[in-house]
Amino acid sequence: MAILARIMSEQYPTPNKKQKTRASILIDYLIGRDGHELDTYRDPELYDKGAHSHLYRRDNLARGVADVAEQHMPHGHKTKVLDIGAGTGILSLELAGRDYPVTAMDLFASQLGRLSKKAEDQGLTDKVTPVEADMNCEFPFEDGEFGTVVSLRANRYVKNFGHWLGEAHRVMEPGGTLVLPVFAVDIVPWKRNSDEGIYQPTSRNAVIRAILDSGFEVDEQASVRYSQSVNQNLGQRDVPFYYKPSFVVAEAQQ
Ligand SMILES: C[S@@+](CC[C@H](N)C(=O)[O-])C[C@H]1O[C@@H](n2cnc3c(N)ncnc32)[C@H](O)[C@@H]1O
To answer: pLDDT tens digits, residue range 101-152?
Structure first.
């Protein structure tokens, strides 16, 4: 109990020098910061350096997700990947660094600008294509363009999950793979941001049902196997319990 209290009250510096605790960061996150929750993404340096990065190793999380995506690439080739809600590119750049061509889609040019700068610094410019687009509208891609679709910590901003899944399915080649980590900590924000409100299904089982309804086949064994292995890997990689994802790995049907 004393250890828990110490962890929750630990102080973290933020760029504007204010001290924030883990607990206050978590509370801000759950209540949506008075409707200003998207502001962080307009300031990508704050996003990258900011309070959340003190909570857990985001790069470790991205490595775990990239491991899962890589283990499940369709047809075993270097497939074209779409990263939805790519942000400043923590996952896109991890996959690009593993030689996959990645299209990084995000709502904010500011986030993508920082992603492009990091791609340049890492010599990955020709592997990453930034695309500014709203994932709650039609995706600006052709049918069947991608072998793999990934999305990390962006589903909390999805308004209509059925529509989002329909678009993900449309832009995937038959047999393509969707890798969607589901986080317990996203339940409240996702319900808050969804058109469905509190009725937005957010449990792993409900997410799986929606994915099945959208024309995917869910590989339950793969999902369970990966959830176990990734949870373990992420544990070793210093990610707190509420940021350990359950994975849904699904295959697009014709
Ligand atoms: C928590 S961040 C995750 C970013 C990145 N995937 C990562 O793990 O670091 C959520 C991202 O979703 C993006 N986003 C929010 N609403 C969006 C929308 N409607 N369409 C596309 N991207 C959106 C934000 O700009 C932000 O970059």
So the answer is: 999 999 999 999 999 999 999 999 999 999 999 999 999 999 999 999 999 9
Integer Cα distance of 134 and 105 in angstroms: 8
Last residue of a domain, one of 27, 55, 83: 55
Backbone angles phi, psi at 44, to 5 degrees: -65, -25
Question: Alpha-carbon distance 106 to 83, whole Å?
Answer: 9
* C-alpha 116 to ligand 1 mean position (Å): 15
Same domain for 138 and 223?
yes
Q: Give me the domain span that covers residue 29.
A: 2-55
Tell me, in angstroms, the distance from the centre of ligand 1 to residue 5's CA.
31
- Joined together, the tokens standing for residue 28 give 């801000």
Ligand 1 site-directed mutation target among 30, 39, 41, 134, most atoms within 8 Å of CB: 41
